[in-house]
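## retry 2 of 3
previous attempt timed out at serialization; input unchanged, resubmitting
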Amino acid sequence: MKKILLIFGISVLLAPVLFLVYYKYNLVCLPRASASSFIFGLVPFIFIVLAYYKMNKTYLYFSLTVLITECIITPVIMLKRLGWEKFSNERLLAFFTFEIIEIVQIVLILILLEKVLRIKLQTA
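## retry succeeded, writing output
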């Protein structure tokens, strides 16, 4: 479980750095993309750490909910702010990068959830 926490933490730190590089090359429209990727990665990470130390699956469910909501809302926000033309022509790399990072984080949470449930079943 510690390895998964480490990988999740690295992804939380890597995402804003990657979006700052994208901002430098004008692949994202605002530096806010970097800040929001960090915040939306940090909130689930905090709950994952709490779940790890307390062995409570509720925190993992909350982390999962935050990430899934973010995956759904991100394209809506990007389309609303940029419009279809700019989104489809210029910002797809940033969009797919953001979504792939989110999907990796969701998979990591699902793995952690499975491990916590397995530990709970073994101790019951």
